[in-house]
Write a structure and sequence with these properties.
Chain lengths: ~100, ~425
């Protein structure tokens, strides 16, 4: 009995999780999602870094935008990030931030 | 044309017949019964595997993804030069496709593609075929061995490895270095650009020098470059050779190898014959053979022209090309291949749903080169779609490291872990 309940729980959890991911992806527009996908090479899928680089998933929107603007202006010195930040507009930082803020850590 | 089963078997015995007359293959069976909309992806490297994952992740349950790959395992070409230096083994760079199957529901077919029929929208394999609504071709590069007299795929596999696809040849080259006498000459021959991984050959010179410096310090690393100058990260590489491996690395521009003496390990350029102990010839490259089968090669008969909004071929409808095989003013790197893959994945989903692809895509590349076991430098660029030129153009602000550093060596390791996870997990 207990086993069955656990299985049911596992299945509903699996359905719940996949629904969740569909919802979070759908809630932010596709262009923002596509823009943010460029970050995944170094920061993990949906910003869930697996090691070393900052986790962007769930990051506060204002904090994300402020940091990107600082990398862009040179106020914050990074090793790599200034080369990326300078390639985007402030509006695009907002869109990326919106996507990452909507992702589960 | 009608054929009975016996005729078909007779014809099938000669594999090329199937490729020449693709409709014959319709006597074969559909490998996986097609129910809804299907995307077939040929090639499970950085580009193909990423496209498979992202179509399933973004496209919902209604789009079936079949990934065809000839190898059982994924081996990362990025960072594989460190196997030569000794800070990694090939096993450290080897991954499986299990998560793509289990977590994302990608259907994996291990096999070799024998033909593609763009009209009937079918991919042929030895044991059957796969129908598709959209095909993504991601075959990486193939080598033009015939451009260097004396060289062949067999020679590369046995004695003069290119090791430009990570795997058995990487291990062979490492073994050759281990067997080389102290005071020996290692020579690397670089083809004219464009080729896979612009900074890769120069990184390899660093990695081989790192190994030799610590094990065979009287030896020499000779770089024979068909290009007139160092193609990527010039200042950073020359500084690394001078600072870390003084007197060991010699760079020769405009030194295209046109001929090899296999038994003597002699590389021949227009000007001289160079006797070596370990010879590493990286031949000129072109799009992988599958691109030719799909009929998507350009007028140069080498690379594939694509629409950068969708990566759809400019010559075949419903066939997309991503990764090293495309003709573009973009570096041919694993990271770039994943970036093409995501734009392509998003576009394929939109197109299959009767909508238009994102009209303003941007992609990015970060590429680290290991100067030693722990120091690295990078080149990073954002590339944006230019509507007027219909090309991807480098945005302002991209560039290379100010200098190599241990911090970047650490970041390079983080990059590898994250990108492998983004591609496969």
């Amino acid at each position: 009995m207990k086993k069955i309940r656990l299985q049911t729980f596992a299945i509903s959890c699996a359905i719940g999780c996949s629904l969740y991911s569909a919802i979070t992806h759908a809630s932010v527009d596709a262009h923002s999602r596509n823009l943010a996908a460029s970050c995944a090479g170094c920061h993990g899928t949906d910003g869930r870094s697996v090691e070393g680089t900052p986790v962007l998933a769930g990051m506060d929107k204002k904090l994300f935008v402020a940091q990107m603007k600082d990398f862009k202006s040179g106020a914050r010195v990074g090793t790599v990030m200034h080369h990326h930040a300078k390639g985007y507009s402030d509006e695009e930082f907002e869109k990326m931030a919106e996507f990452f803020a909507a992702q589960k850590r | 044309m009608s054929l009975d089963r016996r005729d078909f078997l007779k014809l099938g015995a000669a594999g090329f017949v199937v490729a020449t007359f693709p409709n014959i293959a319709f006597a074969s069976s559909e490998l996986i019964k097609k129910k809804g909309q299907r995307v077939v992806i040929v090639g499970g490297g950085f580009g193909g595997a990423t496209a498979a994952k992202y179509i399933r992740m973004w496209g919902g349950k209604n789009i079936e993804v079949v990934l065809v790959e000839r190898n059982a395992m994924f081996i990362s070409c990025p960072m594989s030069n460190t196997v030569l230096g000794g800070s990694r083994t090939i096993e450290d760079l080897t991954r499986n496709y299990d998560t793509l199957k289990k977590k994302y529901g990608v259907k994996l077919v291990q096999g070799e593609v024998t033909g593609i029929d763009p009209q009937k929208q079918t991919v042929m394999l030895a044991n059957g075929h796969l129908s598709y609504d959209r095909l993504i071709v991601a075959p990486g590069v193939d080598f033009m061995f015939d451009k260097i007299e004396g060289l062949s795929a067999e020679v590369a596999g046995e004695s003069i490895p290119h090791a430009w696809k990570a795997g058995a040849q990487t291990v062979l080259l490492r073994k050759q270095l281990e067997a080389m006498p102290d005071g020996g000459v290692f020579a690397i021959s670089i083809p004219k650009a464009p080729y896979r991984c612009p900074p890769g050959p120069y990184e390899r010179a660093c990695q081989v020098a790192f190994y030799l410096k610590h094990n065979k310090p009287k030896s020499k690393v000779l770089i024979l470059d068909a290009n007139p100058d160092i193609v990527s990260k010039k200042g950073l590489f020359t500084a690394a050779w001078k600072d870390l491996y003084p007197g060991m690395v010699e760079y020769r521009p405009d030194a295209a190898v046109s001929k090899v003496d296999v038994a003597g390990k002699i590389a021949k350029t227009e000007f001289e014959d160079i006797k070596t102990d370990v010879l590493n010839i990286i031949p000129p490259m072109k799009a992988g053979a599958v691109a030719d089968m799909a009929g998507v090669l350009g007028a140069d008969n080498r690379w594939c022209a694509v629409d950068f909004l969708s990566y759809e071929s400019k010559v075949q409808k419903n066939i997309h090309v991503i990764g090293d095989s495309i003709a573009a003013a973009l570096p041919k790197s694993g990271h770039m291949a994943t970036a093409h893959a995501k734009v392509c994945a998003a576009a394929v989903i939109e197109l299959l749903n009767g909508r238009q692809p994102d009209a303003n895509p941007s992609i990015a590349n970060t590429c680290y080169s290991m100067a030693s076991n722990n120091e690295a430098m990078h080149v990073a660029h954002v590339y944006r779609y230019n509507t007027e030129k219909q090309e991807m153009i480098a945005a302002d602000g991209g560039g290379v490291s100010a200098s190599r550093s241990e911090i970047e060596g650490t970041l390079a390791n983080f990059w590898l872990k994250n990108i492998l996870s983004d591609v496969l997990l």
